[in-house]
Structures are given as structure tokens and as C-alpha cells.
Design goal:
Radius of gyration: 23 Å
Number of strands: 7
Strand content: 5-15%
Strand order of the largest sheet: 5-6-7
Order of helices and strands: HHHHHHHHHHHEEHHHHEEEEE
Largest sheet: 3 strands, antiparallel
Shape: globular
Distance between the termini: 43 Å
Length: 368
Amino acid sequence: MPPLEAWEKVFIGDQGFLASYHARLGCIACHGGTPQTDDMEAAHQGVVRDPDPQQRCALCHGEIVQAHVNSLHYDLEGFITVLSDRSDAAHWDQLMVAYNNHCTACHATCGQCHVSRPTSTGGGFLAGHVAKGAPPPYLTCTGCHGSRVEDEYKGQNERAEGERYPADVHYNPGGMICEDCHTADEMHGTGTQGDFTHRYDGLATPSCTQEGCHEDVAPGDGIAQHDEIHLQRLQCQVCHSAEYKNCYNCHVQLSEEGTPFFRTDPSQMMVMIGRNPIQNPARPWEFVVLRHVPVARDSFSFYGEDLLPNFDARPTWTYATPHNIQRVTPQNRSCDACHGNEAIFLTEENVAADEREANRGVIVYEVP
């Protein structure tokens, strides 16, 4: 998304905000500060740009805030889970310095979705200062989930010069936006969602076969591949994902001025099928699509040596739910397009030698 001018990030704009309920509360109610003083410096003591939900938003939205501050969007527990698995107590303090410099920009408060764009994208109001009950997804959600989810969903990844991979059928021609599948309860962690330590904890929601979607998918529905064996053993995306983006070898650093930045190796577009690393009753399939995540043994070497001593504890090819669904894909055009096709299965030859031990549980040693 294009950057905003500095004035666009702070200018309240027209009368929309002044006529809203939040305007009645006054600036201090949300942003803090010291009222009734002629001293400008004293008046701004304690002022914050992005209010703490527990201190401000909870005054009116208590139930949502109580759940949200324990959600992955707010507490980033998913990052901690992955890092703790790959590191150990002896290296944790050094690793947390890197984490605080590079990972917390994705932390999403109430305001970063409902009032402004995410800070990690440069911020800036969505509509003056007016709070949006349903945030515009292509200014908020894709501010953080843009390089993979948005590009896949909208068909913005380039296949060749002048050509692009197809958009997800739910977007074109479906016209669906993020909140059509991802509910407010899911985003806020309310309802029956529960407290998670990783993005794929809990139920597999949203689900392709949930009520109101493809709930009629079953053996005998008229599609030959929808037999009992395929539906039991394969995640839907194994057959219906087009090629998606895989990222490699992220390395984080600070510039001479102390600005955090990172470098990654070139990404690759592919479909890669492997063993299910999180097989459980909610995700019972034997085979799923896997996506390579941007991590390496020395991702945090700028901050110290061997900060991921247990690197092999988690696969670098992980469970994925690409947003690029097609009814017909290269791998489901015929039986032979999938069966025996080593190019689309995560065989040992398709895994970097240094990562094979980490991926033992997901590598397919015998292609079906």
C-alpha cells in the first residue's frame, strides 16, 4: 500500500470524528495527558499515540479486550512458541533482544485495526479519526498479511513477464473479503476460540466444509476424487491450492543508525505436499501442503552465536493454508499429475541438506 504523507497520519479531517461517539470522550480519555494546565510540556506528559486496550478500550469494550489481550494478534505468543522450541534458557535473553527489535512490529492493538493502519506499515488513519467497526481488510489485514496472503488471494504473484498466477476463486469471481471467513470472534479471541500458543492450535477454522460453505463435499457427491480415501488422507488444499510463495533464510540486523532490518533469500512459487506435522482430530489428514518459512540456523547471528541451538526441534517446512484456491489445479488434472509425481512431494532431495533433520517428520520417503 502507498505510504501516507505525515499530515495524513494525524489530521482529523472533516466533521466525521467530531460527530462520533468517541469524540464525546475527549482526547485524554483515549490518549492520556494532563488536563487543565497552561504548560504544554506538562499537558503532554503520559500522552500515547496508540492507547493500551486494557487501560482505555476496556472501559467500554471489556469483554472483547479481555479476550483480545490474550490473542495471538496482541500477545504474539506464536512467535514465542516457535523461538522457545528452537532455542534454550542459556540463549534466551540474547534472543529476546532480537525479538523485541524485529518481531514486535506485528503486534496489533485495537487502534491499529479499527482507527489506523498497522504501525508496521507506517500507520495512518483509515478515515480521519473515525473508528471503523469492521476494518477495511485491504488497509488493515493485508498491511501485515500482504506479501503472501494478499498476493496469493488477489493473484498478484508474477508467473512470467506479463503473466500472473490466478487469484483465489473466493476472490475472483467470488468477491469475498477477509471477514467473510475470519470472524470477529476469531480475530478477538472471543466466543469459543480459546487461548492459543500458535496459529494452528484449536479447531481448523475457518473450514472448507463448515456450515454455509462446501458442507456437501462427501463420497458420492459426483466428484470422483471425493472418495473416502482421498477425503480422509488429504487436506483440501493438497488438490485445490495453486502454486504459492515459499520464503527462505531470514537474517535480522541493525543498521549503523540502529534501525532494524532483515534480508531473505529469493522466494519460490510451488506446491509442496508432505506429511502432516500437526496431525490431530481437528486436522486428521496424513498429507497436507507445506510452506517453507523464512528461518535459518543463523537467522539471529547478529545478536550472538548459536541462538537457535535446538533448530532441528521444528520443521522448516510447516503446515500451511494458502489463499489461492482453484477448482482445477495442475496436481488434480489427472491421477498421474499427483501420484508418483516427485516434483510436488517433499522428498529428501527437495530439502536442503542442513534442514533434513528438522524435517524428518514431514518428508515423504515413499511417494504414493
